[in-house]
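ok, trying the design again with the full structure, not the truncated one.
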């Protein structure tokens, strides 16, 4: 069970206080994981949750114990949080297996919390301060447009528009050129007759995540309250509308990229993509190569087709490809069933503001007389007579999550439980629903449906718990985040890194919601991408002469591979591998000053394409360079792309591989680095030299790696292994330049 399995918060207890003569206080109870050799998941208890509950049953009244349990912890620590009176506390402390009991501390509630989660604060030693908050950089966002009236695009305190800017604020329907300012410096659209204004909301959300201004007292209907900020709050934003109600077309995307290059952007952010394509057939790959040639960093979403292997999109080596991770922020909305059991759920419905929402309702799922698709709550599928005033269970999938709530409300339903299926498992993307609603994971959905089938009169209520921070392990890989290896180019590890992409609060067009909200919550690699775009802007501001490859190297080689508890980043119930998280979770604090970088020139990518077997015409399509691969490969014998991550492929009959890498010192002169190596299983790895002495800043030194396969080819067509190589500064031992290693064995 995860740390968040059960969460009743102070809202629930405020309703229960009247039942107790003495005031209750919240305590964190730490348990011995295996007291006296006892295994808590033995037949004595069906789960850790029940084991934890047994301690309360011994210290509080039996019919009150389950309502007292706030959290059940199994990862960060073994134990639970509960509400106890003084006498109950004394009794519980004496129970065998109790290690410690600590009073809970008051939690501070914060929005666009991801910047704090990644360690960004306005302190002098912070990456924000040292990069000038991204001042002077321009982030170009290709998306659905922008709602300029959002407070996230206020230009108070912004410097003048950079002199290099050549763009415009294009006049369009519902959009006036006067809508631009020193923050939102440009806006264009790329389909004739459409508007620049954001009629979808996605572009407003991603733009403000990358470079939105500070907005105090921001929240989503009272949830996640705090100060909203983009990753680079001092950067300028230019928006290019390429997506419409019927999708995003490659012609529009290429036109926008072409214009953005001329306009003078420093970073291009594209939360757009599809299925993996050969690079010569991929408009984003083609347009982005040219952008990189002009010194522009291109950051793209990896896609939401996870956890399937080979699903990662935007896989060109000159693109920074971003997967999604979770935060340690939750919006608990617990389902209390009529039989007294509780199901963990999450929701951003403002239930705390409407006490009547905790009312118990009759439960109904796929009602009799419903049309096809009633289990998914399709429009027109729910018979009003069967669901009027009831709580409707809707399976997740096919139609949108928020759309299901609208269908239930329009059909007369009073509340909704959105139930994950086997496809979504425990993934917990929340929504701002139009009626009392919550989302439960797949495990909880099975329990819910079993309860409905067990009684003639199933009933339930939802208990909303507001916002909770710091109670769950994070970051972890989002289940929907697309996975590698790269389908068209497995010689480069993709995705590159992961960044926050689950339940991200950012700006929203007020005119798209009848409740007139300025902020909303969204999930996807679309949300992860602008986080990294903003961080790229910070690096560009601190190092304006760095190449796009240098900026990307700084983010990859300093990424975190452990979560905030110091344990490995997880992917579901197992440690995340390189095809899920790439180099790891982006760390802006360390990326500003990485020590060493792997640099790549545009012509190196051309040689790399030759090594992949691309034809002259295909390479020309991608790069606009008329390359002779035979000559390039003759001039660059043993060429390997100077990528920050390392991918090795052993095909049948091949047992040895040699690679070269070059490192540039962007830190202090007279720096010495020593290598630390964890070889992938089944592979012997040699590195020469094992020490690098950089006498000067910007000095370039190289090293070679030999990979020797000790694994016999099996009947499996593919097998994988992974490790890592790290250069450690011998003087301070803090500067670490880490490269993940992936090894693939292919029979053909």
């Amino acid at each position: 069970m995860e740390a968040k399995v059960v969460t009743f918060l102070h809202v629930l207890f405020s309703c229960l206080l009247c039942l107790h003569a003495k005031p209750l206080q919240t305590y964190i109870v730490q348990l011995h994981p295996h007291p006296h050799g006892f295994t808590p998941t033995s037949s004595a208890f069906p789960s850790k949750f029940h084991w934890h509950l047994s301690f309360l049953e011994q210290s509080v009244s039996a019919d009150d114990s389950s309502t007292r349990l706030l959290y059940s912890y199994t990862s960060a620590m073994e134990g639970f949080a509960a509400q106890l009176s003084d006498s109950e506390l004394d009794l519980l402390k004496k129970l065998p297996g109790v290690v410690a009991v600590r009073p809970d501390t008051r939690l501070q509630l914060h929005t666009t919390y991801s910047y704090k989660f990644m360690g960004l604060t306005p302190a002098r030693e912070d990456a924000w301060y040292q990069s000038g908050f991204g001042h002077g950089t321009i982030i170009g966002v290709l998306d659905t447009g922008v709602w300029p009236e959002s407070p996230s695009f206020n230009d108070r305190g912004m410097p003048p528009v950079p002199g290099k800017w050549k763009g415009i604020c294009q006049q369009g329907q519902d959009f006036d050129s006067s809508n631009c300012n020193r923050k939102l410096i440009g806006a264009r659209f790329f389909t004739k007759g459409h508007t620049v204004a954001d009629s979808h909301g996605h572009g407003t959300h991603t733009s403000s995540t990358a470079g939105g201004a500070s907005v105090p007292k921001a929240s989503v209907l009272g949830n996640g309250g705090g100060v909203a900020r983009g990753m680079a709050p001092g950067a300028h934003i230019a928006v290019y509308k390429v997506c419409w109600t019927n999708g995003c077309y490659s012609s529009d995307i290429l036109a926008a990229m072409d214009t953005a290059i001329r306009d003078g952007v420093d970073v291009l952010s594209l939360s757009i993509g599809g299925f993996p394509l050969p690079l010569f057939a991929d408009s984003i790959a083609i347009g982005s190569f040219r952008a990189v040639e002009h010194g522009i960093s291109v950051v793209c979403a990896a896609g939401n087709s996870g956890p399937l292997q080979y699903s990662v999109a935007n896989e060109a080596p000159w693109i920074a490809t971003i997967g999604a991770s979770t935060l340690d922020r939750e919006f608990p909305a617990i389902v209390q069933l009529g039989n007294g059991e509780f199901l963990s759920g999450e929701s951003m419905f403002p239930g705390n503001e409407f006490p009547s929402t905790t009312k118990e309702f009759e439960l109904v799922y796929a009602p009799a007389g419903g049309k096809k698709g009633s289990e998914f709550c399709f429009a027109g599928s729910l018979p009003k007579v069967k669901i009027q005033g009831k709580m409707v269970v809707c399976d997740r999938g096919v139609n949108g999550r928020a759309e299901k709530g609208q269908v239930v409300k329009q059909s007369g339903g009073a509340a909704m439980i959105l139930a994950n299926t086997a496809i979504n498992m425990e993934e917990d993307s929340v929504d701002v629903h139009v009626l009392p609603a919550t989302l439960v994971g797949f495990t909880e959905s099975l329990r819910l449906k079993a309860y409905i089938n067990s009684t003639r009169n199933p009933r339930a209520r939802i208990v909303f718990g507001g916002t909770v921070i710091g109670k769950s392990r994070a970051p972890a890989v989002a289940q929907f985040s697309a996975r590698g290896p790269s389908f068209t180019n497995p010689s480069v590890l993709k995705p590159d890194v992961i960044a926050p992409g689950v339940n991200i609060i950012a700006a929203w067009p007020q005119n798209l919601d009848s409740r007139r909200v300025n902020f909303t919550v969204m999930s996807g690699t679309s949300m992860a991408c602008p986080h990294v775009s903003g961080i790229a802007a910070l690096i560009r501001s601190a190092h304006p002469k760095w190449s796009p490859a240098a900026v990307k190297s700084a983010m990859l080689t300093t990424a975190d591979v452990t979560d905030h508890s110091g344990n490995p980043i997880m992917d579901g119930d197992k440690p995340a591998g390189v095809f899920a998280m790439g180099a790891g979770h982006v760390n802006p604090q360390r990326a500003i000053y990485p020590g060493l970088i792997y640099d790549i020139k545009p012509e190196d990518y051309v040689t790399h394409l030759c090594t992949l077997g691309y034809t002259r015409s295909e390479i020309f399509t991608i790069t606009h360079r008329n390359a002779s691969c035979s000559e390039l490969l003759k001039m660059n014998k043993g060429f390997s792309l100077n990528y920050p991550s390392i991918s090795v492929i052993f095909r049948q009959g091949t047992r040895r591989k040699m690679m070269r890498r070059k490192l540039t010192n962007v830190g202090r002169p007279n720096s010495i680095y020593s290598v630390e190596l964890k070889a992938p299983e089944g592979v012997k790895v040699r590195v020469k030299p094992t020490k690098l002495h950089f006498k000067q800043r910007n000095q370039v030194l190289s090293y070679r790696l030999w990979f020797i396969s000790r694994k016999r080819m099996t009947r499996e067509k593919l097998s994988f292994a992974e490790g890592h190589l790290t250069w450690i500064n011998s003087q301070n031992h803090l500067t670490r330049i880490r490269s993940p290693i992936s090894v693939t064995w292919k029979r053909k």
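Keeping the full-length input from now on. DSSP finds 19 helices and 37 strands in the chain.
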